[in-house]
Design brief:
Elements (H helix, E strand, L loop, with lengths): L1 E3 L4 H8 L7 E5 L6 H11 L3 E3 L3 E2 L14 E2 L2 H9 L3 E7 L2 E6 H9 L3 E5 L2 H10 L3 E7 L3 H11 L4 H15 L7 E4 L3 H17 L3 H15 L10
Parallel strand pairs: 2-8, 2-9, 3-8, 4-5, 9-10
Antiparallel strand pairs: 1-6, 4-7, 6-7
Helix pairs in contact: 1-4, 2-8, 6-7
């Protein structure tokens, strides 16, 4: 895997959104963890969060819809986004490029919603290095045997690919120590509820911006209002 990331004017605009309290939540995890299912369910339950659609240069798989599952791009178009520093994170995986457009995240923030990104561990690290209010959540299946069973049931990979993905999953598990939270997805609704608790807690977290706003509000409330002066 080759990780690529850079900074540019669009990223500077994005970082200013942190002052408005916008948060990027990252869902990562090995194949078969069920993170896509968890992410879609979260987005359907919480109107204050939107699941970002990533970009890729690979061909659509059967049943995938452009603009819903991925933005399918030609390699030249993808490379142009990278060169213009319009990717929040991008990586090359098995000869295909994947990435998150800054403009897509800005679009979510413009709707006064937090962004939910389903990306790999390298992408999560890249996003956090650029955007301070990034929360990293690692989703895992109860066991590697359960991950294998889920991948086989999905039917989109042959046995050799399933084995390769499980081996990769063992490597990705080593990166879980760099994440803020780990969620074991034994049952989807329980995993979703756990992530919802994380999101609620993070939205209530005290930040410098939140503290300043609170102080200013208290100061404004302490100032005498018209008609409050004692009569004499």
């Amino acid at each position: 895997m080759v990780l690529r990331h850079a900074v540019g004017p669009m990223l500077e605009i994005l970082c200013k959104a942190a002052n408005d309290g916008r948060i990027i939540f990252v869902l990562s995890g090995p194949a078969g963890a069920g993170k896509s299912t968890v992410g879609r369910r979260l987005a359907s339950l919480d109107v204050r969060i939107a699941l970002n659609v990533s970009c890729t240069t690979r061909a659509p798989r059967e049943g995938e819809r452009a603009g819903a599952d991925y933005h399918f791009l030609h390699q030249s178009d993808f490379d142009g986004l990278v060169q213009r520093c319009e990717m929040l994170e991008s990586a090359e995986v098995h000869r295909h490029s994947y990435g998150t457009r800054v403009s897509d995240v800005l679009g979510i923030f413009a709707e006064c919603r937090d962004a939910l990104l389903e990306i790999d561990v390298q992408g999560g690290a890249a996003v956090r290095s650029k955007y301070p209010r990034t929360v990293l959540i690692f989703v895992v299946a109860p066991s590697f045997s359960e991950s294998r069973k889920r991948l086989i049931a999905r039917g989109s990979e042959d046995r050799e690919e399933v084995t390769r993905r499980i081996n990769r999953a063992r490597e990705e598990m080593l990166e879980a120590k760099n994440y803020d939270y780990i969620v074991v997805n034994a049952e989807v609704e329980s995993a979703v509820a756990e992530v919802q608790c994380i999101i609620t807690a993070e939205r209530a977290r005290m930040t410098r911006q939140r503290y300043r706003a609170l102080v200013e509000e208290m100061r404004a409330g302490a100032e005498p209002q018209k008609g409050d002066e004692p009569s004499g």
